[in-house]
From TrEMBL:
The chain crosses the membrane at residues 20-38. It comes from Triticum turgidum subsp. durum. Gene3D superfamilies: HUPs. This is ethanolamine-phosphate cytidylyltransferase. Coiled coil: none annotated.
Length: 340
């Protein structure tokens, strides 16, 4: 008994200043419960009985934030003769999720639904992969969102939403190519970029080369520039340029690489040369020549005007900054230019 009391003393007792041997055994347990019950009523609660007072506050205890899966969106297209309208569509699609997966429609599907493409699948894949908003590319995608392909998107690629522009996309039989996605409630829509289309660009190419070869020179038709102005309805705004721009200056001590050119009808070759240039340094600055300089050098104006070509370059993931209307010759002032 004395040894048990000493052991209890070493543990400092139940309360300071007293040793309660009567707490041992069944009777001790009953006395303890009674004391706690009485103290709950008298002091407003001690121990387990007062836990309900704290229940409303348990929700305020910080919990470990569960990591949510990124929202993945899918958008497809032919992306033939890619232009800033395509880039702007993919930019808008990326805003609807965290990761953008792009399907590039196969040559066979394009032929069956629209006619033969101008660019090969490899060229179109290079162009799409080179855009700064694209995270993943699916080659040889179908033109129509079939039930089988839609299930593949949901299960294999973890796609949450299928995106398309507000312009209708009809199959040869007149049905909506995205009908099943809409019915499944997994469809979202973006606004089509006005002022440009692949058909429009083909028209500009034909008009430009007719003028270059002297066709209809004496037929009283309007000049190439006038016709091109009618075909192009693009209205350049500072907001659009800011949307395409990275908005970042080179960090102190960064190696800045400069490359310039016309970059007319932005194509896979442009993407590859910009990628190679970016690998030479930390920051890629691209000069885009103005329309008049290109006319004087080539003898005919560019297909795409200056601001259209600027957006095409800015959309490329390897480009950090653009000089709009850069001179053909690199001056000393340009070499010594400091970014603020």
């Amino acid at each position: 008994m004395m040894m048990g009391l000493l052991a209890f003393e070493n543990n400092q007792g139940l309360w300071n200043g007293g040793y309660y041997s009567q707490f041992f055994g069944i009777g001790g347990v009953m006395v303890t419960v009674a004391i706690l019950w009485l103290s709950t009523g008298y002091f407003g609660g001690i121990g387990a009985p007062f836990a309900p007072y704290f229940w409303p506050y348990l929700g305020q205890v910080p919990k470990k934030k569960e990591r949510q899966r990124p929202v993945r969106v899918y958008m497809d297209g032919c992306f033939d003769l890619m232009h800033y309208g395509h880039a702007n569509a993919l930019r808008q699609a990326k805003l609807l999720g965290d990761q953008l997966v792009v399907g590039v429609v196969s040559d066979e599907e394009i032929v069956a639904n629209k006619g033969p493409p101008v660019l090969s699948m490899e060229e179109r894949l290079t162009l799409v992969s080179g855009l700064k908003w694209v995270d993943e590319v699916i080659p040889n995608a179908p033109y129509e969102i079939t039930e089988e392909f839609m299930n593949t998107l949901f299960s294999k690629y973890n796609i949450d939403y299928i995106i398309h522009g507000d312009d209708p996309c009809l199959l040869p039989d007149g049905t909506d190519a995205y009908a099943l996605a809409k019915k499944a409630g997994r469809y979202k829509q973006i606004r089509r970029t006005e002022g440009v289309s692949s058909t429009d660009i083909v028209g500009r190419i034909l008009q430009t080369f007719k003028h270059k070869e002297g066709v209809n020179e004496n037929a009283g038709v309007k000049s190439c520039d006038q016709m091109k102005t009618q075909l192009s309805n693009f209205l350049p705004t500072s907001r659009r340029i800011m949307q395409f721009s990275n908005g970042q200056a080179p960090s102190p001590g960064a190696r800045v690489v400069y490359i310039d050119g016309a970059f007319d009808l932005f194509h896979a070759g442009h993407v590859e040369i910009l990628r190679s240039a970016r690998q030479l340094g930390d920051f890629l600055l691209v000069g885009v020549h103005d329309d008049q300089s290109i006319r004087e050098k080539r003898g005919y104006p560019p297909i795409m005007h200056l601001h259209e070509r600027t957006l095409g370059v800015l959309a490329c993931r390897y480009v950090d900054e653009v000089i709009i209307g850069a001179p053909l010759e690199v001056s000393r002032d340009m070499v010594c230019y400091k970014f603020l």
